[in-house]
Amino acid sequence: MALRLFSHFGVSFAKILAVKISTVIITLNEEENIARAIRSVAWSDEIVVVDSGSTDATRKIAAELGARVIEQEWLGFGAQKQFAVDAAANDLIFSLDADEEVSNELAFEVGQLIESDELADGYRIPRLAVYLGRKIRHGGWYPDRQLRLFDRRKGRWSDDVIHESFKFNEGATAGQLKSDILHFTCNDISEHARMIHERYAPLSARSMFESGKQTSILKIFVAPAFSFFRDYILRAGFLDGSQGMIIAGFGAYNVFLKNALLWQMRRSTK
Predict the structure, then answer these.
(1) What is the DSSP letter of 196?
(2) 175 and 213, same structural domain?
(3) What is the pTM of this model?
(4) Which is higher by pLDDT, 172 or 160?
(5) Is 181 helix (H, G, I), strand (E, B) or coil?
(6) In terms of domains, do 17 and 97 share one?
(7) Confidence of residue 13 (pLDDT cuts 50, 70, 90)
(8) Are residues 141 and 64 in the same domain?
(9) By the 8 A CB rule, do 11 and 43 touch?
């Protein structure tokens, strides 16, 4: 697969064969997304899908598209991604979420990078969100650079309960790529609300609690208003139209809920 894609892009076969890439994806009930994600990295030498108990057709679709599917009970976001990295056959890893897609431009850029034969230990890649059919370039959502292409020997995934990331060992070097990973965030507004209510706000509150952060009734009400003003006005979210306003509103709701949950946690320990 790698030879077909990079041959199309005019990249040297000899150098491609010298460096092999494993793409790793973790999944749970991603039948609507997984095919798009896998097809976008068909140039990989290997695609590893680690599934944590899907009850839909995720595993079947992934296997039919040539991925090596491994079933693993849920370990937490960072630990699950590290399990996938450890299961890969190659040291050069491309980490992709199931609701993401590698753009053609990014695939080409990765090909050119390998052809140059001067790889850094890892590369941060801009991530462009697609929200309710619109690409979001303001409001603090872009470029949202993520360390997704890396030598697995140079670091590990963090154990953060939310916003996990790949952390380099001391002395490792990172470069930056220009082309985007596309992130298909939500199918509808109700899904966005559920994500905040069931995942982002509770996990953020837990992380804040464990790190010793405090909140107050005043902050519960003032912080959301500032969040909306910052994202919609200062970060020009208004340039993203109606979607920009909705995103800023949900951002404010997330700030409200995580602080309210933190306040409740602090109160229950007294």
Answers:
(1) I
(2) no
(3) 0.87
(4) 172
(5) strand
(6) yes
(7) very low
(8) yes
(9) no
